[in-house]
């Protein structure tokens, strides 16, 4: 009888082992369309390496998964399929439910300057009424272009269309092939012949490593250590614990109404016009009003 119970116990233990192994596998998502990876293959390779690195740091295994559409990425996060991810700061600025672990680096900096590139244009004025592209950021592409980068200095109808490109490489390729007139892209990306930068744009935070769901202190510490020890490629060389740039993007999404100088009517006072038709009289005051009455003091008693 005891032998039978032992066999049952071992069988249950064996059946439970695969579930335990699956629970230790961490899926690290990559949704960073603006990151100027030279190719899709380079993007996938970075995700794979980061997934394996993070999984090992958490005491298990890890896999990386690239997401091209914000809807697919959001759905994976909601289902709990993705608990750690490298995400564009422009997407994070308009979403929530995450804990920032670290900011990615490119060229040793976490903030990356952007540029407006075009074909057949030398200044932004040449792009009025033209079609421009912005790498996907989860639905905030127009605000990103008009407010974050241009500061609200051009009207909403300045460009004929502001459309979404799947990523930076696709946006640049579309301009190079004449399928779009211009694109907002990070500086430093390789540009094809005939495509030039027409306007330097403000620097904003690059992709950030975040964790979704409940993050214990031990898990956060392990993720931070994994991020700081990761060695990437030219696009994402590594990480550092600096996430201050995210608030800057959030603040730029909304532009306060610009009020021009106050208009002050030119007023000229003419004495003749003020006195016309009026009678003025100054009443004389008796001189005695300003004269103090004499003070009479009583003589002291002798």
Quick overview:
With 302 residues, this protein is an alpha/beta fold. 33% of the residues lie in helices and 23% in strands. The chain is built from nine helices and eleven strands.
CATH-defined superfamily of the largest domain? Periplasmic binding protein-like II
CATH architecture group name of the largest domain? 3-Layer(aba) Sandwich
SSE order, one letter for each helix or strand: HEHEHEHEEEHEHEEEHEHH
Name the structural class.
alpha/beta
Distance between the termini: 142 Å
The overall number of domains is 2
What name does the CATH topology of the largest domain carry?
Answer: D-Maltodextrin-Binding Protein, domain 2
The overall pLDDT, averaged over residues, is 83
Helix count, DSSP H or I runs of 4 or more residues: 9
Task: Describe the largest sheet.
Answer: 6 strands, mixed
Q: What fraction of the residues are assigned to beta strands by DSSP?
A: 15-25%
Radius of gyration: 35 Å
Ranges where pLDDT stays below 50 over 5 or more residues in a row are 4-22, 261-271
Residue share in helix: 25-40%
- The top-level CATH class of the largest domain is Alpha Beta
Shape: globular
Strand order of the largest sheet: 2-1-3-10-4-11
Count of DSSP strands: 11
């Amino acid at each position: 009888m005891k032998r039978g119970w032992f066999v049952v116990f071992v069988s249950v233990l064996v059946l439970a082992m695969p579930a335990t192994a699956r629970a230790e596998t961490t899926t690290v998502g990559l949704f960073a369309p603006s990151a100027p990876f030279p190719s899709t293959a380079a993007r996938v390779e970075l995700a794979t390496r980061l997934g394996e690195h993070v999984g090992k740091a958490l005491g298990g295994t890890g896999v990386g998964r690239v997401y091209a559409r914000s809807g697919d990425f959001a759905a994976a996060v909601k289902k709990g399929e993705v608990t750690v991810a490298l995400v564009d700061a422009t997407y994070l600025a308009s979403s929530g439910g995450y804990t920032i672990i670290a900011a990615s680096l490119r060229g040793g900096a976490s903030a990356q300057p952007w540029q407006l590139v075009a074909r057949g244009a030398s200044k932004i004025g040449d792009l009025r009424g033209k079609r421009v592209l912005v790498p996907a950021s989860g639905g905030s592409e127009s605000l990103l272009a008009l407010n974050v980068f241009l500061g609200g200095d051009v009207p909403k109808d300045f460009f004929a269309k502001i459309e979404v490109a799947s990523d930076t490489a696709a946006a640049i390729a579309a301009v190079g092939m004449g399928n779009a007139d211009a694109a907002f892209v990070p500086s430093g990306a390789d540009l094809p012949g005939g495509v030039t930068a027409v306007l330097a744009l403000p620097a904003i935070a690059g992709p950030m490593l975040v964790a979704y769901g409940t993050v214990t202190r031990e898990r956060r510490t392990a993720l931070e250590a994994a991020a700081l020890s990761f060695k990437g490629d030219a696009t994402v060389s590594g990480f550092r614990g600096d996430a201050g740039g995210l608030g800057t993007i959030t603040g730029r999404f909304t532009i306060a109404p610009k009020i021009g100088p106050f208009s002050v009517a030119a007023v000229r006072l003419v004495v003749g016009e003020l006195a016309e038709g009026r009678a003025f009289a100054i009443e004389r005051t008796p001189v005695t009003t300003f004269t103090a009455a004499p003070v009479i003091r009583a003589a002291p008693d002798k």
